[in-house]
Every structure is written in C-alpha cells, then in structure tokens.
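Figure 2 data, in text form.
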Amino acid sequence: MSNFLQTVPPGSLVLDGSFPEPVWVGPEGRPAYSNSGFYAYYNRTFATLQETGYVYAVFDGTSKLWYLQYRGGNVYDFYERQAADYPLIYDNGHVTVYLVHSPT
C-alpha cells in the first residue's frame, strides 16, 4: 500500500487506511499528498468531494477495526457502501483503493 501511494500525483488527498510511513524512501523522494480520516469528512458523500486534486479512498480491515472501537463503525460503513460506485484502482487482497475524484 505504501509503495502504491508513492505513485499518486502530488497534491492528492488520501482518505483513511492504515499504512506505514515509507521510511525506506528518503524525505525528498516522498510524494506530497495529504492523508485524512473519513471522520473528518463524515456526512459528505464522495460525490461532494470536489477537491482541486485527486482524491483516493483506502479501505482495509485494520482501519475498520479502529473505527469500530474508537470512531464508530457507522462512519466507516458510510464510506465503504459508496466505494462500489467508483473505480477500484488497487487491491492487494488486504487493502483496496478507489479513485473518488479526479480533476477535470
């Protein structure tokens, strides 16, 4: 997952997911994307996320467990239900990534 995220365009927004900081890539080689939790956008559907850059949604079991324990499963489920409406662009069997917005 971390290796995949190294390929997203600079300025992208990556929503949630539990993935390590790519310490094996020097700071100058890491892409400039921002990471935010679903909880920060809760009640806004993916369709309303008209950010200026690309927006990706990351889903994985570890993150879902954290939501169930600390943020409320309803938040995670709210976004997980929307994912099928968007292109699946990464799936390693444990983590999936959907492209939910691209600049026009």
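Caption note: The chain has one domain: 2-101.
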